[in-house]
Amino acid sequence: MKIATWNVNSIRAREERALAWLAKEQPDILCLQELKLEDEKFPTLAFKALGYDSATFGQKTYNGVAILSRAPITEVERGFEDGVDDAQARFIAATTSGLRVLSAYMPNGESIASEKFRYKLTWFERLAAWLGPRMARGNTLLLGDFNVAPGDLDVHSPAVLTGSLLCSEPERAAYRKLLALGFTDALRHLHPNERIYSWWDYRMLGFPKNRGLRIDHVLITADLVPRLTRGWVDREERKGKQPSDHAPVLVEVKG
DNA sequence: ATGGCCAATTTTATTGGA
Predict the structure, then answer these.
(1) Residue A54's closest CA among A11, A25, A88?
(2) Model confidence at A255, in pLDDT bands (50, 70, 90)?
(3) Alpha carbon distances (Å) from A154 to A33, A151, A198, A202
(4) What is the 3-state secondary structure (H, E, C) of A41-67?
């Protein structure tokens, strides 16, 4: 079973590429982030034509997440339903192919001193609270754009960037708190000593110079770790005309 | 070659992304 996550940076701008990528790569499940449109404008039928069922939690202009699957999708939950007044569509959960799949788009944070940074840290806490009572279920994957580069191997210039946005200790602590709930970072588990990036800045020749960060992650519960056979970033998808600034991250799970 | 920001909207500037 092949499972992927991809921040497409607007599904409208990326529809053709996303369809072509699905047709070529044929993942069983694909989580999307940054749809940047409402549910009724999501190209449901185009994905259906390729054999993918979809569940979306969209929002005009900003955010928006989805789960696509070759198998039927059930038990959909949108947002945390935790009583917090929050208009940002950043989280969707669903069951498909016998797995519990969570697609998340963590807040960027803007800058360390900003109000948005506090919102980011609070959002991680809300996610952890949502996950807490649900971890015992196991069989769960949390995939998405975490907007956190967990360690030096996830950063092109750690000497310069450590402490700045996406690489700060509070963000990394929030990320580790998710792991402590019982998740394993699938790619880092398979590649403990490799530099891996999933995002490259559009500006300043970020991709040609390979100045990237690994901020898109696939976390899996402990019961899935023995089934994990492969994990990688599809860098090819960052090339060519009108790419997203993120590349898809994929894992393979036996059975 | 992998190329000098991009996408959406408030559109000919501004905002947010990371």
Answers:
(1) A11
(2) confident
(3) 20, 5, 9, 18
(4) HCCHHHHHHCCCEEEEECCCCCCCEEE
pLDDT for A124-177, tens place per residue? 999 999 999 999 999 999 999 999 999 999 999 999 999 999 999 999 999 999
CA atoms A20, A237, A103, A1: torsion sign: positive
User: Pick the catalytic residue: A39, A52, A53, A105?
Assistant: A105
The pair of structure tokens assigned to A233 is 């970033």
Q: What is the pLDDT of residues A182-227, one digit of tens each?
A: 999 999 999 999 999 999 999 999 999 999 999 999 999 999 999 9
Helices (H), chain A: 11-25, 44-49, 115-131, 158-161, 169-180, 186-190
**3-state SS, residue A7:** strand
Q: Which residues are within 7 Å of strand B by their Cβ atom? A: A 7, 9-10, 12-13, 34, 36-37, 60-62, 107-108, 110-111, 116, 145, 147, 165-166, 199, 201-205, 207-208, 210, 213, 215, 239-240, 242-243, 245-246
For CA atoms A32, A69, A21, A200, the dihedral sign is: positive
